[in-house]
Automatic annotation (TrEMBL):
The keyword Signal does not apply. This is NAD-dependent epimerase/dehydratase domain-containing protein. Keywords: NADP, Oxidoreductase. PANTHER family: NAD DEPENDENT EPIMERASE/DEHYDRATASE, VESTITONE REDUCTASE-LIKE.
Length: 245
Protein backbone atom coordinates (compact mmCIF):
# COMPACT_ATOMS: atom_id res chain seq x y z
CA UNK A 1 0.00 0.00 0.00
CA UNK A 2 0.97 3.56 -0.38
CA UNK A 3 3.87 5.09 -2.17
CA UNK A 4 5.65 8.37 -2.06
CA UNK A 5 3.57 10.99 -0.29
CA UNK A 6 1.48 8.36 1.50
CA UNK A 7 0.52 9.79 4.88
CA UNK A 8 -0.40 6.42 6.38
CA UNK A 9 -3.64 4.49 6.61
CA UNK A 10 -6.94 5.64 8.06
CA UNK A 11 -9.96 3.39 8.51
CA UNK A 12 -13.43 4.75 7.63
CA UNK A 13 -16.39 2.62 8.74
CA UNK A 14 -19.62 2.95 6.77
CA UNK A 15 -17.80 3.74 3.53
CA UNK A 16 -20.91 3.34 1.37
CA UNK A 17 -22.77 6.08 3.22
CA UNK A 18 -23.23 9.77 2.61
CA UNK A 19 -20.69 11.04 5.15
CA UNK A 20 -18.36 8.03 4.89
CA UNK A 21 -17.92 8.27 1.11
CA UNK A 22 -17.07 11.98 1.35
CA UNK A 23 -14.49 11.24 4.04
CA UNK A 24 -12.89 8.59 1.84
CA UNK A 25 -12.72 11.01 -1.09
CA UNK A 26 -11.15 13.78 1.00
CA UNK A 27 -8.67 11.45 2.73
CA UNK A 28 -7.51 10.10 -0.64
CA UNK A 29 -7.14 13.65 -1.94
CA UNK A 30 -4.94 14.45 1.05
CA UNK A 31 -2.62 11.52 0.38
CA UNK A 32 -3.86 9.04 2.98
CA UNK A 33 -4.36 5.35 2.37
CA UNK A 34 -7.91 4.42 3.26
CA UNK A 35 -9.29 1.20 4.70
CA UNK A 36 -13.01 1.53 4.04
CA UNK A 37 -15.51 -0.86 5.56
CA UNK A 38 -18.68 -1.82 3.73
CA UNK A 39 -21.28 -4.34 4.76
CA UNK A 40 -20.75 -7.95 3.65
CA UNK A 41 -22.21 -8.68 0.24
CA UNK A 42 -22.03 -12.47 -0.23
CA UNK A 43 -23.19 -12.33 -3.85
CA UNK A 44 -20.82 -9.49 -4.66
CA UNK A 45 -23.65 -7.60 -6.34
CA UNK A 46 -23.09 -4.18 -4.87
CA UNK A 47 -21.57 -1.61 -7.19
CA UNK A 48 -18.76 0.12 -5.33
CA UNK A 49 -17.36 1.93 -8.36
CA UNK A 50 -18.29 5.31 -6.80
CA UNK A 51 -15.52 4.51 -4.30
CA UNK A 52 -13.08 2.50 -6.38
CA UNK A 53 -13.06 5.13 -9.16
CA UNK A 54 -12.13 8.00 -6.83
CA UNK A 55 -8.81 9.68 -7.62
CA UNK A 56 -6.07 7.80 -5.74
CA UNK A 57 -8.31 4.79 -5.06
CA UNK A 58 -6.39 2.43 -7.33
CA UNK A 59 -3.26 2.93 -5.28
CA UNK A 60 -4.55 3.74 -1.81
CA UNK A 61 -8.08 2.45 -1.21
CA UNK A 62 -8.73 -0.98 0.26
CA UNK A 63 -12.27 -2.23 0.87
CA UNK A 64 -12.99 -4.45 3.88
CA UNK A 65 -16.25 -6.20 4.75
CA UNK A 66 -17.58 -5.52 8.25
CA UNK A 67 -20.91 -5.39 10.06
CA UNK A 68 -21.74 -3.82 13.42
CA UNK A 69 -23.59 -7.03 14.29
CA UNK A 70 -20.17 -8.71 14.31
CA UNK A 71 -17.86 -6.21 16.00
CA UNK A 72 -14.77 -8.37 15.44
CA UNK A 73 -15.32 -8.06 11.69
CA UNK A 74 -13.73 -4.58 11.85
CA UNK A 75 -10.38 -5.91 13.12
CA UNK A 76 -8.81 -6.46 9.70
CA UNK A 77 -9.72 -2.97 8.49
CA UNK A 78 -8.27 -1.32 11.61
CA UNK A 79 -5.02 -3.31 11.50
CA UNK A 80 -2.10 -1.02 10.64
CA UNK A 81 -4.14 2.22 10.68
CA UNK A 82 -3.03 5.40 12.42
CA UNK A 83 -6.56 6.74 12.71
CA UNK A 84 -10.12 5.43 12.67
CA UNK A 85 -13.22 7.37 11.68
CA UNK A 86 -16.19 5.41 12.99
CA UNK A 87 -19.12 6.59 10.90
CA UNK A 88 -21.28 3.49 10.32
CA UNK A 89 -24.73 3.54 11.88
CA UNK A 90 -28.13 2.49 10.66
CA UNK A 91 -30.12 5.64 9.87
CA UNK A 92 -33.51 4.24 10.80
CA UNK A 93 -35.91 7.05 11.70
CA UNK A 94 -38.94 4.82 11.26
CA UNK A 95 -38.10 2.65 14.28
CA UNK A 96 -38.26 -0.55 12.25
CA UNK A 97 -36.36 -2.39 14.96
CA UNK A 98 -36.85 -2.23 18.75
CA UNK A 99 -34.79 0.48 20.39
CA UNK A 100 -32.93 -2.02 22.57
CA UNK A 101 -31.73 -3.94 19.52
CA UNK A 102 -30.58 -0.79 17.71
CA UNK A 103 -28.79 0.50 20.81
CA UNK A 104 -27.08 -2.78 21.72
CA UNK A 105 -25.78 -3.20 18.18
CA UNK A 106 -24.44 0.34 18.09
CA UNK A 107 -22.73 0.02 21.48
CA UNK A 108 -21.28 -3.44 20.81
CA UNK A 109 -20.07 -2.33 17.39
CA UNK A 110 -18.43 0.84 18.71
CA UNK A 111 -16.79 -0.94 21.65
CA UNK A 112 -15.54 -3.70 19.36
CA UNK A 113 -13.97 -1.06 17.14
CA UNK A 114 -12.41 0.74 20.12
CA UNK A 115 -11.01 -2.53 21.49
CA UNK A 116 -9.41 -3.26 18.13
CA UNK A 117 -7.93 0.27 18.17
CA UNK A 118 -6.51 -0.30 21.67
CA UNK A 119 -4.95 -3.60 20.62
CA UNK A 120 -3.57 -2.22 17.38
CA UNK A 121 -0.62 -0.27 18.82
CA UNK A 122 -0.80 1.88 15.67
CA UNK A 123 -4.05 3.84 16.10
CA UNK A 124 -3.31 7.28 17.50
CA UNK A 125 -6.81 8.76 17.44
CA UNK A 126 -10.39 7.64 16.92
CA UNK A 127 -13.10 9.95 15.66
CA UNK A 128 -16.63 8.89 16.50
CA UNK A 129 -19.50 10.37 14.53
CA UNK A 130 -22.17 11.25 17.04
CA UNK A 131 -25.20 13.41 16.30
CA UNK A 132 -27.09 16.44 17.46
CA UNK A 133 -29.70 13.91 18.59
CA UNK A 134 -27.26 12.93 21.38
CA UNK A 135 -27.30 16.55 22.61
CA UNK A 136 -30.56 18.42 22.37
CA UNK A 137 -33.37 16.12 23.48
CA UNK A 138 -33.57 17.15 27.11
CA UNK A 139 -35.48 19.55 29.32
CA UNK A 140 -32.72 22.08 29.88
CA UNK A 141 -34.87 24.74 28.24
CA UNK A 142 -31.97 26.91 27.06
CA UNK A 143 -31.67 28.71 23.76
CA UNK A 144 -28.26 27.38 22.88
CA UNK A 145 -26.65 24.05 23.60
CA UNK A 146 -23.10 22.90 23.21
CA UNK A 147 -21.10 19.72 23.69
CA UNK A 148 -21.64 19.83 27.45
CA UNK A 149 -25.32 19.00 26.94
CA UNK A 150 -26.57 15.45 26.59
CA UNK A 151 -29.84 14.02 25.45
CA UNK A 152 -31.81 12.72 28.43
CA UNK A 153 -32.54 9.12 27.52
CA UNK A 154 -35.16 8.68 30.26
CA UNK A 155 -36.99 11.74 29.01
CA UNK A 156 -36.88 10.46 25.42
CA UNK A 157 -38.14 7.04 26.53
CA UNK A 158 -40.90 8.23 28.82
CA UNK A 159 -42.17 11.46 27.31
CA UNK A 160 -40.99 11.98 23.80
CA UNK A 161 -41.74 8.76 21.96
CA UNK A 162 -41.10 10.42 18.64
CA UNK A 163 -39.89 9.22 15.26
CA UNK A 164 -36.31 9.70 16.31
CA UNK A 165 -36.36 7.93 19.70
CA UNK A 166 -34.38 4.79 18.84
CA UNK A 167 -31.83 6.71 16.85
CA UNK A 168 -31.36 9.38 19.52
CA UNK A 169 -31.10 6.88 22.37
CA UNK A 170 -28.64 4.70 20.48
CA UNK A 171 -26.46 7.68 19.52
CA UNK A 172 -26.46 9.01 23.10
CA UNK A 173 -25.70 5.74 24.85
CA UNK A 174 -23.10 4.72 22.26
CA UNK A 175 -21.22 8.00 22.61
CA UNK A 176 -21.26 7.70 26.40
CA UNK A 177 -20.06 4.08 26.26
CA UNK A 178 -17.32 5.05 23.81
CA UNK A 179 -16.01 7.81 26.10
CA UNK A 180 -16.15 5.53 29.12
CA UNK A 181 -14.05 2.94 27.30
CA UNK A 182 -11.64 5.52 25.92
CA UNK A 183 -11.11 7.11 29.33
CA UNK A 184 -10.52 3.74 30.99
CA UNK A 185 -8.05 2.62 28.32
CA UNK A 186 -6.28 5.88 27.58
CA UNK A 187 -7.52 6.02 24.00
CA UNK A 188 -7.60 9.38 22.21
CA UNK A 189 -11.25 9.73 21.22
CA UNK A 190 -12.95 12.73 19.66
CA UNK A 191 -16.66 12.83 19.04
CA UNK A 192 -18.03 14.92 16.20
CA UNK A 193 -21.57 16.18 16.70
CA UNK A 194 -23.06 17.07 13.33
CA UNK A 195 -26.51 18.61 13.09
CA UNK A 196 -28.29 17.91 9.81
CA UNK A 197 -25.77 17.22 7.05
CA UNK A 198 -26.97 18.23 3.59
CA UNK A 199 -25.41 18.88 0.21
CA UNK A 200 -24.14 17.01 -2.83
CA UNK A 201 -23.55 13.30 -2.41
CA UNK A 202 -21.17 10.93 -4.16
CA UNK A 203 -22.80 7.71 -3.00
CA UNK A 204 -25.60 6.30 -5.20
CA UNK A 205 -28.33 6.50 -2.54
CA UNK A 206 -29.75 9.88 -1.56
CA UNK A 207 -29.33 10.03 2.18
CA UNK A 208 -32.22 10.64 4.57
CA UNK A 209 -30.98 14.06 5.68
CA UNK A 210 -30.74 15.35 2.11
CA UNK A 211 -34.17 13.88 1.32
CA UNK A 212 -35.55 15.60 4.39
CA UNK A 213 -33.98 18.93 3.41
CA UNK A 214 -35.51 18.70 -0.06
CA UNK A 215 -38.92 17.48 1.13
CA UNK A 216 -40.48 20.94 1.62
CA UNK A 217 -39.40 21.93 -1.89
CA UNK A 218 -41.06 18.85 -3.39
CA UNK A 219 -44.03 19.00 -1.03
CA UNK A 220 -43.24 15.62 0.50
CA UNK A 221 -44.21 14.91 4.11
CA UNK A 222 -41.57 13.03 6.05
CA UNK A 223 -41.79 11.93 9.66
CA UNK A 224 -38.24 13.13 10.13
CA UNK A 225 -39.46 16.67 9.62
CA UNK A 226 -42.21 16.57 12.21
CA UNK A 227 -40.38 18.20 15.07
CA UNK A 228 -40.39 16.06 18.20
CA UNK A 229 -41.77 18.88 20.28
CA UNK A 230 -41.55 22.62 20.33
CA UNK A 231 -40.59 22.50 23.98
CA UNK A 232 -37.21 21.00 23.14
CA UNK A 233 -34.54 21.93 20.71
CA UNK A 234 -32.05 24.73 20.46
CA UNK A 235 -32.81 27.83 18.45
CA UNK A 236 -29.13 28.02 17.64
CA UNK A 237 -26.67 25.17 17.44
CA UNK A 238 -22.98 25.12 16.77
CA UNK A 239 -21.42 21.84 15.80
CA UNK A 240 -18.59 21.22 18.27
CA UNK A 241 -16.40 18.36 19.27
CA UNK A 242 -16.42 16.55 22.56
CA UNK A 243 -12.81 15.92 23.52
CA UNK A 244 -9.52 17.54 22.70
CA UNK A 245 -8.96 18.04 19.00
N1 LIG B 1 -26.68 12.80 7.70
C1 LIG B 1 -26.88 13.53 8.77
O1 LIG B 1 -27.59 14.58 8.71
C2 LIG B 1 -26.24 13.17 10.07
C3 LIG B 1 -26.40 14.06 11.15
C4 LIG B 1 -25.81 13.75 12.35
C5 LIG B 1 -25.07 12.60 12.50
N2 LIG B 1 -24.94 11.75 11.44
C6 LIG B 1 -24.15 10.53 11.67
O2 LIG B 1 -23.24 10.38 10.61
C7 LIG B 1 -23.05 9.00 10.36
C8 LIG B 1 -23.25 8.73 8.88
O3 LIG B 1 -24.54 9.12 8.50
P1 LIG B 1 -24.93 9.23 6.97
O4 LIG B 1 -25.82 10.40 6.83
O5 LIG B 1 -23.72 9.10 6.12
O6 LIG B 1 -25.81 7.88 6.83
P2 LIG B 1 -25.86 6.79 5.68
O7 LIG B 1 -25.64 7.41 4.35
O8 LIG B 1 -27.12 6.01 5.88
O9 LIG B 1 -24.60 5.88 6.00
C9 LIG B 1 -24.64 4.96 7.06
C10 LIG B 1 -23.54 3.96 6.82
O10 LIG B 1 -23.55 3.02 7.89
C11 LIG B 1 -23.60 1.71 7.33
N3 LIG B 1 -24.28 0.77 8.21
C12 LIG B 1 -25.57 0.75 8.59
N4 LIG B 1 -25.81 -0.32 9.36
C13 LIG B 1 -24.63 -0.99 9.47
C14 LIG B 1 -24.23 -2.18 10.12
N5 LIG B 1 -25.09 -2.95 10.82
N6 LIG B 1 -22.94 -2.57 10.01
C15 LIG B 1 -22.04 -1.83 9.30
N7 LIG B 1 -22.37 -0.71 8.64
C16 LIG B 1 -23.65 -0.29 8.74
C17 LIG B 1 -24.36 1.88 6.02
O11 LIG B 1 -24.13 0.77 5.19
P3 LIG B 1 -25.16 0.41 3.99
O12 LIG B 1 -24.83 1.37 2.86
O13 LIG B 1 -24.84 -1.01 3.68
O14 LIG B 1 -26.54 0.61 4.52
C18 LIG B 1 -23.72 3.17 5.52
O15 LIG B 1 -22.47 2.91 4.95
C19 LIG B 1 -23.98 8.24 11.29
O16 LIG B 1 -23.25 7.80 12.41
C20 LIG B 1 -25.00 9.28 11.69
O17 LIG B 1 -25.53 9.01 12.96
C21 LIG B 1 -25.50 12.01 10.24
Amino acid sequence: MGGSGDKGAVCVTGGTGYVGSWLIKVLLEHGYSVHATVRPDPDNKRDLSFLTSLPGADERLQIFRADLNHPESFDAAIHGCKGVLHVAAPMDFEDNEPEAVVTQRAIDGALGILKACSRSETVKRVIYTSSISAVYLNKSNVEMMDESHWTDVDYVRSELNSYISSYAISKTLTEKAAFEFANEHGLDLVSIIPPMVVGPFICPKMQGSTRAALAPIFGVTLRVLSAPSNEVGPSTYTSRERGQV
